[in-house]
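Thread title: Can someone regenerate the structure for this chain?

I was given the following input by a collaborator and told the matching structure tokens would be attached. They weren't. Posting the sequence so someone can regenerate them.
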Amino acid sequence: MYLTPKESHLVNTNPSIVSVPEKVKKLSILLFYGFVFCLFVSPVIQAQDKPELILEDPTLITPKKFKILGVEITGVDKNNAYIVATAGLDEGKEIRIPGPQIPDAIKALTRTLNNK
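Best answer:
Regenerated them for you:
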């Protein structure tokens, strides 16, 4: 590269001086890598702090007894007593959860609706 005397003042002879475009280039590279770190590495770090989801087999849970203190039917204007009698979940009855009483009540109500 040959420079004329007019252009010789444009040449950087001191390597410790960095031109403005080089500083901008280095800053943009630093910002890019910072963005990549925040985008990809940060969620991985945060995901490790969350508790692990533990799924249990419902058939292995020890059933607990509950007493039905009251039954309320909503969404139907007539035949509330018929619905309670069909479900078999009367006030004062003891049921186990998990247990067969709730699924049996749902099946009985479904059969009743399908027969009408």
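Residues 87 and 104 are 8 Å apart (CA to CA).
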